[in-house]
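Pipeline run #58 for the internal structure catalog. This entry was flagged by the ingest filter as a single-chain record with no existing model, so it goes straight to prediction. Upstream metadata was stripped on purpose; only the residue string is passed forward. Reviewer on rotation: M.T. Logging verbosity set to normal.
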Amino acid sequence: MDLVKSLSNLGLNEKEARVYLALLKLKQATAGSISKRSGLKRPTAYAVLEDMIDLGVVDKVPRKKVMQYTAISPEELFSVYKSRIDNAKKEALPELKALSRDKEHKIRVSYYEGLAGIKEMYERVYENKPNKEFIGFSVHGDDAPKELLDFLKQQNEEYKKLKIRRRIITAGEPENRQALSVNKKGRQNNIATKALLKLKDNRGVSIEIYKNYIQIISLRDSQAIVIDSQDAAQVLKQIFNIIWESDNRSKDKGFDKNAIRIV
C-alpha cells in the first residue's frame, strides 16, 4: 500500500506524509534524524515539522541539548482530521450552499453602447447558440442611426447560417416587417412573425429572448442591456407564447383577432 498517497488523500501533503511516517518509525527523533529517514533536506524538514506542529500532528519533546519531535498516533491523526471535517461541515456547509444558490439565481446585467457595443452583444448571441430558437418583440426604429439599422438587417444572414429559428411579434408597421425581410422570404430565413396593432408610442425599443438571456435594445439611443436570469427569461417566454397564441381571442377581451396575423 502506498501510505504516502493514503495520507495525502487524508489531508497531509507529500512532504508532511513522509515526515509523519518517519516519526512513526523513529518514535521520537531530532530534525536531523527525521531529515535522513524521510529523504528531505534538513531545512525542508525543519519547515515541515513547524507546519505539522501548527496542524496538531507533531509535538515537540524538549531535551537539554537538542530538540526532538514525536508524532501523534494514527488513531489520533484520523480523529483530528475527522473533527476538522465535521466542524467545517457544521460551520461552512450552510453558507457554501447559500453561495451556490445565489450563483444559480443571481441576476447578471451587461450594458452595451453604440454600434460596436451592439455588435459585441450579438457576437455573444452566436457564441451562446440560442437552442435554434430566438423570440422577441420587434419595433420600427425610425429614429435609429442608419448604420445600426443596416447592421441589424445583416443579422438575418447570420441567423440563417446558424439555422436559428426566430419567432417575432412586430408592432404592426409595414416598414418593420420589411426590415425583418419576412414577407415572402420568411420561411427561407427561418422567421415566423405576427403583427399586432400599431403601438401609440413604441419608443424604438425591442426585446429579444433566448436561453436565459433577455436583450433590451434601444434603437433610438443605440444602447442595449442583457439580463441573464433564468426566471425572468422564462416568464417573458410565457408572456410571448400567450400573445403568440392569442389569435382566437375576441374583441370584447381587448383583442382584435384580425389585427394579429402571420406575415
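catalog note: Residues 174-186, 248-263 have pLDDT under 50 and may be disordered.
catalog note: The first strand starts at residue 28 and ends at 30.
status: ready for reviewer M.T.
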